[in-house]
Structure formats: C-alpha cells, structure tokens
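lol forgot to send this yesterday, sorry. struct tokens for the thing we talked abt
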C-alpha cells in the first residue's frame, strides 16, 4: 500500500514585521519516503519550489524551536493565533514562512497515524529493493564474472593476444 497524506494551504511569506504576502503551498507526506515531509510552494505556477526535510523536525517545531542550517521551525503567536514559522535558507536566498498551526498540526497528526514514529523503516520497501539487487542475474553469461553492466560496471571483455604474445 502506498500512503500519501496531502494538504493544500496558504502560507505567508514574511517580508517584514508589518508586511507579508500569501503563498499557496502543498504539504505532502509519502510512506515510501517515511522520514521526510515535502512542501511545494507556488503550486499551479510555472516554477514551483520544492523543499524536503525531516518530518521529525516539523513535529518538534510545532512545540519548540528546532533545526539548524537550512531549515528551522518554531511556534509563535500572531495576533493571538498560533502559527508555525519555517525559516528556509539556500544559496539562492532566505525565506521566512508563517503557517497556520491548527492546519499543520492536523496534517501532521494524519501522517503520524498513517506511519507511526518508529515504524518508518517498515514503509520504505528497502527489503524488496535489497532482495532485487542481490538476486542472481539471469543466465546472461555474466553471472559470477565481474560487475554487472546494470550496476554501472563494464562487461568483461575477452583478452586478445597480439603477435608478440602481449595482451
């Protein structure tokens, strides 16, 4: 089963303490990437912006300031209502976004019910991928003779002798 939990909402891009602009966004959580959350900004535009970071960071950020580096998250109040600040930093610039706490919290609760903390690895499908990777190759004449071309290796080549006996 492929689990996907999505939520579209309007965030605010904070330009200054007095000014912000609305930014349509989509929160996405996928069971096949169970440790991460994905946020797409400017949905429906020609150039959407995608960010991916740890679900645990967002869960913790609902309650207290957390994160270092590119993504930081913390709760606060704005005109008496609960909001989550998400600070993003990249070589292209920085952005401070404000998300409504009730909607983010409700979406996070759905992700936690879908894939409870501590069970993420069970949803990744790594066992199947590892079994496929380690499965014997079909009878192609290459089995047991070196790297598989499918894995980026080269096919073994016969050694040709030259007239003087050098290979």
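and heres what i got for the seq, position by position
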């Amino acid at each position: 089963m492929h689990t996907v939990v999505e939520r579209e909402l309007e965030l605010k891009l904070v330009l200054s303490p007095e000014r912000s602009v609305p930014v349509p966004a989509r929160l996405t959580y996928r069971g096949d990437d169970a440790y991460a959350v994905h946020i797409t900004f400017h949905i429906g535009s020609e150039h959407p912006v995608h960010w991916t970071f740890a679900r645990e960071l967002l869960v913790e950020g609902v309650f207290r300031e957390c994160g270092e580096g590119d993504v930081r998250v913390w709760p606060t109040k704005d005109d008496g209502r609960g909001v989550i600040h998400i600070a993003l930093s990249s070589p292209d610039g920085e952005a401070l976004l404000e998300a409504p706490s009730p909607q983010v919290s409700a979406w996070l609760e759905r992700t936690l019910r879908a894939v409870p903390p501590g069970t993420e690895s069970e949803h990744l499908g790594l066992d199947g991928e590892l079994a496929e990777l380690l499965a014997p190759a079909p009878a192609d004449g290459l089995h047991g003779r070196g790297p598989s071309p499918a894995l980026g290796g080269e096919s073994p080549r016969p050694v040709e002798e030259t007239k003087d006996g050098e290979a």
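Residues 101-114 form the longest helix (14 residues). anyway ping me if u want another try
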